[in-house]
Amino acid sequence: MTVAPSTIKAFAGYSFTIDTSTIIPSGGMLTLQFPSDVVLPANPSCVFQFGFTGVPSCSANNNLLKIVGGFPSLNGIRFRINNVQNPGSALNLQGFAFKFYSSTASTTPIDSSLSSSGFFFQYTTDTLLSGDAMASSWVVGDYSTWTLKITPKNQIPAGGIVKFFMPKWIDSTLHSITPLSMLPSGSNTCTAGTGLTASSISCTFTRDPSPTAIDYLTINNAFSSAVPGNNYFEIKIANFRNMPTTRPYTNFEIWTYDANGYGIDNLKAIEVGMTTPATLPSTMASVIIEAPTTVDALTTYLFQIFVQNPIPMGGTIRIRIPQTIGAT
User: What's the rounded Cα separation, in Å, for the pair 16 and 94?
Assistant: First the structure.
């Protein structure tokens, strides 16, 4: 079986190639059961491509497709049903099953699917209409509240889940042996923003120890009722540490799921960049003048700097010296 397109909620063409183990006689019938998550049109449009000896007819009732006529068939058949609506989440869906009968009146199949539970198909997620992450402070290294701004394309059912994937706080470009994360592991504080009414959102941060992997935040209990597609909402994440440089990070992702964890929409390659370098407090930088300290004397200035954000390998420190002091 092939489905095109395989995206959730799309109206798709379902193509089937069936090799029969027995000869289907003239006057025979094929039934094809579709799972309940798929919506089969009441008046299906069937295209018969191979193996039929006449012009069959097809009809549907309660997600059961019936094909009558076009038999006998000796070497198998191929056909397509158009305008079937895919399920609302990216299920690995089981339950497609076929049976052949010798006549429309027969109740005993002469051939059927190898498994009584039918066969599977894996659907694919759709794309969010919009998704972004905004910080309450755009200062490098600050701890701030980040707001996820999301407009789903498809409905998120009650009990649905949002996951926010993020890169390491210190990544390979900073040559850190042990990458740090943007959130502390375990339970974190999330709250509902515009478009949501949930009173108690829970969110759990998962840190992947691999330096090349991304971490993610799982947000539960945000949807006490379904959120229709094209409805904007916000989720706020507290205690989020801004990136350590003004270099934009481009591999944030937002995914939505149903209550069972099957994907619905996603948006990848979201770019977030800090705009303002951090300012060192006066207590973290000092100048020590070594002897002699007399006017116009040549001496050595010692600059002591305690950084609050890492300086990458190959980075520079720029010190501006007052014009009244000469430097060689």
Answer: 15
Q: At 215, list the tokens.
A: 């971490």
Task: Count other C-beta atoms under 10 Å from residue 176's C-beta.
Answer: 17
Q: Determine contact, residues 192/235, Cβ cutoff 8 Å.
A: yes
Give the other-Cβ count within 10 Å of 248's Cβ: 11
- Rounded CA-CA distance 121/38 in Å is 11
Which phi and psi (to 5°) does residue 122 adopt? -100, 115
- Cα separation, 29 vs 56, whole angstroms: 9
* 20 class by beta-carbon count within 10 Å (0-12 exposed, 13-18 middle, 19+ buried): buried
Question: 């549907």: which residue's tokens?
Answer: 60
Q: How far apart are CA 292 and CA 158, in angstroms?
A: 74
DSSP 173-223: GGT-SS---SS-SEEEEEEE-TT---S--EEEEE---STTSPEEEEEES--
pLDDT per position as a tens digit, 130-168: 999 999 999 999 999 999 999 999 999 999 999 999 999
Prediction pTM value: 0.87
Spell out the domains of the chain, with CATH numbers in brackets. 2-124 (2.60.40), 127-272 (2.60.40)
Separation CA 271–CA 250 (nearest Å) = 4
Determine the 3-state secondary structure of 282 from DSSP: helix
What are 327's two structure tokens?
Answer: 């430097």
Poorest-confidence range of 245-249, 271-275, 293-297?
293-297
